[in-house]
Amino acid sequence: MMDYMQIGYLIVVPMICFFGIVGNILTLTVLLRGPFKVPAFIYLKGLAVYDMLSLVFIIPIGVIRTECGSNKSVLSKFYEAYVYIPVGDIFLKASILTTVIFTIERCSTICFKGRYSCGAKHSKNAMIIVIATGIFSVVENIPTFWQYQISENTTEIEPTEFASSLYFTIYGWIDAVVFQFVPMVILLVFNIILIIHLTSHRKVQQQLHAESLTEQKLYLEQTRVILMLLGIIILFLVTMVPSSIIQLIGYSTEFESEIFTTFQITVTILISLNFSCNFLLYCALNKRFLRTFKTLVFCCCSNRVHPTGETTNKVVLVNHPRILEKALDLNSPDMMESNEPSDLVANGDSK
């Protein structure tokens, strides 16, 4: 009968990872379309890339860790000690930082009425920030490359002398604070703020008159962004808080112990879920994302869909980045400009 390790590493983790990789590829495919070519969604594109790369590094670890002790190949041990643990953490940390930065930026714009440039310059800045988070994660994670080693006598993975030093202990606590505790607190606080804002936001939306078509569409689009952000935050908290607690408990146990192994499996499953479920969240919480995805699928299947995304006898919103950009920042100067219904809707009123 298969034990918890075999079920977790050989069945659960690979299934989650393969689903997550496909989901992140689909997410990138949808977000690269016209409706999502605005600065706010650059963070989500970066998040999808970091999540996908994290899952790629997680997949081999299941097979490696289910190999029997001394039967593990040197290559397998090398991968775990010198590739998976240090390099895999880089993308995990980059994903966490991107989530936090996106949350702060969107909340500042949506909830606190911050004023941001919505032009090409802002898009470039968003891209620079996403890339900078990756570079920072690489630099910050350098000490972990000397955390474990393969013993020359037993060929087992063991902590290095450097990993037992005071310097690495201090680094470990700083790392935990920067990439675990602080993000959790920030996301928890902003989650509460977003929920409060969403409640008042819906009241404003209900008070808009029927003739205020432009305002209705923009408020609706902003609500979709808030829901997507809420989903990302809740998913992060549900999966990463338990994994962080388990990791801290695991630090006090031996690397090859049964307790540590159980902790490892549980943490790996939770982290894999965090990296894999954003596509489902976007489909469930953002109708524009789901509609664009359906258009892509239909286009691939029939090759008869109009290039703009219009379908016969069906009401759709025009994929207009300018309108979506205004929706993401209702306080921009451009928001005060009047827009004709034709800028927003094709083939009649949108429902």
TrEMBL record:
Keywords: Membrane, Transmembrane, Transmembrane helix
GO cellular component: membrane
CDD domains: 7tmA_FMRFamide_R-like
Domain of life of the native organism: Eukaryota
Principal subcellular localization: membrane
Localization per Swiss-Prot or TrEMBL: Membrane
PANTHER family reported in the protein's UniProt record: FMRFAMIDE RECEPTOR (PTHR46641:SF2), FMRFAMIDE RECEPTOR-RELATED (PTHR46641)
The protein, known as: G-protein coupled receptors family 1 profile domain-containing protein
Organism: Patella caerulea
